[in-house]
Amino acid sequence: MSSWVMILLGFGVGTFGTLIGAGGGFILVPILLLLYPERSPELITSISLSVVCLNAVSGSVAYGFKKRIDYKSAFIFCATTIPGAVLGAYATAYIPRDIFNIVFGLLLLSLSSWLLYRPVRKRAAHEHTHKCYLWPITRTMTDNEGNTGTYTYDIVTAVSLSFFVGIASSMLGIGGGIIHVPAMVNLLDFPIHFATATSHFVLAFMGIAGTLIHLMNGTLKEGLTEVLFLGIGVIAGAQLGARLSHLIKGTVIIRSLAIALMIVSLRILFTSVF
Length: 274
Description:
By secondary structure, this protein is mostly helical. The chain has one domain. Helices cover 70% and strands 5% of the residues. It is built from 10 helices and 2 strands; from the N terminus they run αααααββααααα. A two-stranded antiparallel ribbon has the order 1-2. A hairpin with a 5-residue loop joins β1 (136-142) and β2 (148-154). α1 runs parallel beside α9 (224-244) and α5 (97-117) runs antiparallel to α10 (250-273). The longest helix has 25 residues, at 41-65.
């Protein structure tokens, strides 16, 4: 693949990934799997995770200026996401390519089905009062555009979810936002715009942790060229995605994403089985 094609691919991944707070690894990994069938899962995930990391850092800067990042909640999530990311990065070395493809394809298919039939939805302001929290925390956020949100969630649920996201995202190279954002909205009651920005910030730290592991164990050595050109694209794309985030309805984005994920997952499963 030429350098310009990789830059353009990175730009598209960065724009859409930042727009929904998912990092873009869920798009990049299937493409890399199809383009480089001879490469190991460990190398594919290390390339994707490194690019997702660059995307998340760039997007977080843009979201930070918009005051959409819930920093207090983000650091709570990071407490378990980072250890999960380290564990997931080590685990990739022990997964055969065929098994990796099947697991990844089934994960994408499950996610697409869930997102298609249960997209982001708004909750009533009083709804959280009917829940039983072990360790509740309430946050109120207002961004630069005047959007305000007050939400309550359980810290125990949040850190448990983040640990799983860290393992899955680092192991599969998908970044984790594709799991984290819908869960933050539907399980933790985050408003969609604050969920995408906060998830992106958490993703930056998780990506750094996972990428450092891949660098230290030498996994990423053969993929540095791809990371360089894809990274140029995602850094620029992330800035555009953050600017577009308030123009498109969350349900439209999520449903479009679900259809794309379903097509990609079926393609990966078909090529792996047959």
